[in-house]
Write a structure and sequence with these properties.
The complex is a heterodimer of chains A (about 220) and B (about 120).
Chain A (H helix, E strand, L loop, with lengths): L5 H11 L10 H5 L4 E4 L3 E2 L6 H6 L3 H6 L3 E2 L2 H10 L5 H5 L3 H8 L3 E14 L4 E13 L5 E15 L4 H10 L3 H20 L23
Chain B lengths: L1 H9 L2 E7 L3 H4 L12 H10 L6 H17 L8 H11 L3 H14 L4 H9 L4
Helix pairs in contact in B: 4-5, 5-6, 6-7
Classes of the chains: A alpha/beta (about 220), B mainly alpha (about 120).
C-alpha cells in the first residue's frame, strides 16, 4: 500500500466512504463465490438509447481482471435475441434456473443504468455515468453483492473568459466526442465499482490474490 | 476564430474527475491478467460505430491479437476465442467457428455448457 500524507488520506477517506463504520458484509458472497459471471445487457433508465450496449462493452475487462470467467457479452446478447428475447427487459426476466441451464453460469450480474451522458451547466458540461449492479447466485438465488458504478467528470476552460468557455461547451457537443467520452467514463466507473477495496468485488478464482483475499473469510 | 478554439482546447480543458474511486488508496490497482488487445474496443464499435466493426474486421483484429498474446506468452482473456468464433459463424465459416468454441472450452472449462450448446447446433 502506498504511503500517503495524512491530509491526502483524509480527503480520500471522505471521498470514498472508506472510513464508514460498518464494513461490507461479504459472507454470502464468500460462501457462494462464483467462478463464472454472466452479464446481461443493462436495463436503461437514462435518456440515451445507446447506454446499455456501450456500458456492456466496458464491463468484461474489469470483471475478468478481477479473476472471473466472463461470458462473451455480444454472444450472450445475440443468442438471447435469437431465442425470442428482444431486449434487456425480457432478458432480465429469464429465471435463474434457465440461465444456469443454458449458459452454465454460476452468477448473473444485473445492471440498471440510471444516468448516462452529458449534463450541461451554464458554461461547462459534465459527463456522468451512474449504474446500479447486483450479482446473484444462480443456484441459491441469493444476492451476493450489490453496488453502484458512478463517475462524474467535469470539463471547463482552464482560463480565458466567458467566450472561451462557451466555445468549449459548444465544441463538446460534437457527437462522436460525447459518445467516446461517456464510454471512457463508463470504463472508469466500472473499474472503480469492481476494484473498490471496501465495497467492491471479491477476487475471483483466476486472480493471484484470490487465496489471500481475507474479506468475508 | 478556429485558431482561438484550438488554442483554448490546447491550453487544456481541465478535467476534474470527481470520482468515488478509492481503489488507488487501497493499493489494489487492477493489473491485467490477460492480453486484452482490441476486444473491448471492438465491442464498443459494434454498438456505437457499426461500420467500423463488421465481422471481417473483427476476425482480422482478434486473430492478430491472439497471435500477439501467444507470441508474448500472455493469456487470451475469457470470451475472446468464443467471440472470434461468433464472428466466423456470422461470416459463414462454420469450421473455424467450431474450432474457436472448442478452444474457448479448453481454456476455460466454465464455458463448456454454453460452448457445447453452440457446437451441438452446428452441422457436422
Amino acid at each position: 500500500m502506498r504511503a500517503l500524507p495524512p491530509w491526502a488520506l483524509a480527503v480520500c477517506c471522505l471521498l470514498s466512504g472508506a472510513c464508514a463504520a460498518t464494513k461490507h458484509d461479504y459472507s454470502a458472497y464468500r460462501q457462494h463465490l462464483p467462478r463464472s459471471i454472466l452479464v446481461l445487457p443493462p436495463l436503461n433508465n437514462s435518456t440515451d438509447v445507446n447506454a446499455s450496449y456501450v456500458y456492456l462493452s466496458t464491463v468484461s475487462q474489469p470483471l475478468a481482471d478481477c479473476g472471473y470467467y466472463v461470458f462473451p457479452v455480444a454472444m450472450v446478447d445475440g443468442f438471447m435475441k435469437e431465442n425470442g428475447l428482444p431486449g434487456p427487459g425480457e432478458m432480465h426476466a429469464v429465471p435463474l434456473d434457465k440461465l444456469r441451464d443454458v449458459f452454465g453460469a454460476d452468477a448473473v450480474l444485473y445492471v440498471t443504468i440510471e444516468e448516462w451522458g452529458q449534463k450541461y451547466l451554464v458554461l461547462t458540461s459534465t459527463t456522468v455515468v451512474r449504474a446500479k449492479a447486483e450479482l446473484v447466485d444462480t443456484v441459491s438465488k441469493t444476492s451476493l453483492w450489490s453496488g453502484t458504478a458512478y463517475v462524474s467528470e467535469g470539463s471547463g476552460g482552464a482560463e480565458s473568459g466567458l467566450i472561451g468557455m462557451a466555445v468549449a461547451a459548444i465544441v463538446d457537443q460534437i457527437v462522436d466526442t460525447m459518445t467516446d467520452r461517456v464510454h471512457d467514463v463508463a470504463g472508469t466507473a466500472n473499474r472503480g465499482m469492481i476494484f473498490n477495496a471496501n465495497d467492491g468485488f471479491l477476487y475471483g478464482p483466476y486472480h493471484p490474490q484470490y487465496d489471500s483475499d481475507s474479506r468475508g473469510r | 476564430m478556429v485558431a482561438n478554439t484550438q488554442a483554448l482546447m490546447a491550453r487544456g480543458i481541465v478535467r476534474v474527475v470527481i470520482a468515488i474511486l478509492p481503489w488507488w488508496i487501497a493499493g489494489c490497482a487492477p493489473k491485467p491478467l490477460y492480453y486484452w488487445g482490441r476486444y473491448e474496443t471492438l465491442l464498443y464499435e459494434m454498438y456505437a460505430k457499426p461500420g467500423q466493426a463488421d465481422p471481417a474486421t473483427q476476425i482480422a483484429q482478434l486473430s492478430e491479437d491472439i497471435e500477439r498474446a501467444q507470441a508474448n506468452g500472455q493469456r487470451v482473456p475469457p470470451g475472446v476465442h468464443a467471440h472470434l468464433g461468433y464472428m466466423q459463424f456470422l461470416s459463414g465459416d462454420l469450421a473455424k467457428a467450431r474450432a474457436e468454441f472448442e478452444t474457448e472450452k479448453r481454456l476455460y472449462s466454465e464455458s463448456a455448457t454454453f460452448m457445447d450448446r453452440l457446437i451441438g447446433r452446428m452441422p457436422n
